[in-house]
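User: Before I run my own analysis I want an independent prediction to cross-check against. Here's the chain; please return only the structure tokens and, at the end, one sentence I can use as a sanity check.
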Amino acid sequence: SGLSICPPCGDASAPIAPAVRPGPWKPSAYVSACCPPGKHVHTPDAVFLARTLSFVHDSGLALHFDPADLVRGCMFDAAGADLAPVHAMPRPVRSQHAERWRAIALERARKDDQKLIDDLQWSYDWTFSTRWWGCPIQDGVALEGVEDPSGELPMDLLMARDEILWYQEFDQYEDDLGDEGQVTYTVRARIMPDFFFVLARLELSVLNVVARQVDTRWLHAFGSQELVREWSWRELAPAELRARGPPAAGPALLRPTDTQHRTFHRFRMP
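Assistant: Structure tokens:
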């Protein structure tokens, strides 16, 4: 399910469902072009609250992709089974101008005979690199996944040239990082005759600092009793990417071999 009305702007959204229901699953997406007017504290400039995706099983098990959860995942103190641990995330990113800005601030503080607050504690990731990786729920309770270090997605299944029964793609938030780069969170979902698959991808580019992708992949093979989640991230400095293509391509130039962290979980369905 999803929001029928976007609270910030009141824009109505319509559900999009496949023409043929895939077995016991009821997928639905709510997509609207609405965007909250103005800027919100500690949130990206554009959060598309009416763009949600859900897969609901007849047993009551559900998997939701909600922009509100993504934004919550940008807060350092946020907790929950649907968030990756802080230590698994990429290193914090600083603007290319950070040292110059700090030097200017120090000089102003010296002239005004004031002490500079040098160790300011941020409550959120200014690049909006969310820790959200999702978690299936059953009767309001998050299912506990089992980590499988050797687990792999079934590439033979994913690469099969079968008919695509249903496909949706939409952004859930974006921000230009104060003209210091760009971050976008995009969800792509498809239903095939034998499975459904979702790729939720964060793409981040901070000018002259880093290009990053954080991927969450969900897959369920129909007839099986499990959902699987693969979460990974990769990043490189822009200077290392120049040999691969134009700088404007940014994170799109990253390759699987650039992956620096990967976690694979299996969720047993009741």
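Sanity check: The CA atoms of residues 119 and 198 lie 40 Å apart.
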